[in-house]
What we know:
With 162 residues, the chain is mostly helical. Helix content is 58%, strand content 10%. Helix 3 (36-43) crosses helix 4 (45-61) and helix 4 packs parallel to helix 5 (78-87). The longest helix is centred in the last third of the chain and has 19 residues, at 117-135. The radius of gyration is 15 Å and the shape is globular. The protein has a two-stranded parallel ribbon with strand order 1-2. Strands 3-4 form a two-stranded parallel sheet. The chain contains 8 helices and 4 strands; from the N terminus they run H-E-H-H-H-E-H-E-H-H-E-H.
Amino acid sequence: MMGAGKTTVGRRVAARLGRTLFDSDAEVEARTGRTVREIFETDGEAAFRAEEARALADALADPEPAVIAAAGGVVLDPRNRERLRQAGTVVWLDAHPEALARRVSTGGHRPLLGDDPLTALRRLDAERRPLYADVADHVVPVEGRPLDDVVADVLASVGTPA
Length: 162
């Protein structure tokens, strides 16, 4: 989910493993020359999801191992879920909507949050939690935990000592 720390944790894990970090939102923005918000506003969510799926497929097809910080909504597409299952170890950074709302503050660059981030995050959590559980090989709780502990748990999940 947005605000769980995918990019922050991903950077540290990638550095520790000596791999590239692939952040799907950043990749979509680089490919399109527009922000996620701009894509949502001008082309709609479906167009963004199509870009997101292409970026994920390309990242997973790269023969060079990488750490992938997949956007929270990537699990909405069954093909993406299958790609993730086949790609390698999937780690879900889990946090409840209340904690995520504190982390993301206002919507800013997150168009799905609108004017009431907590309500939006509760709705998204209810929709996505079963999908995350479906693809995750490991679940790492992030609420109230130091970043170094979360990174250590992710590394342990992929079989690398912290």
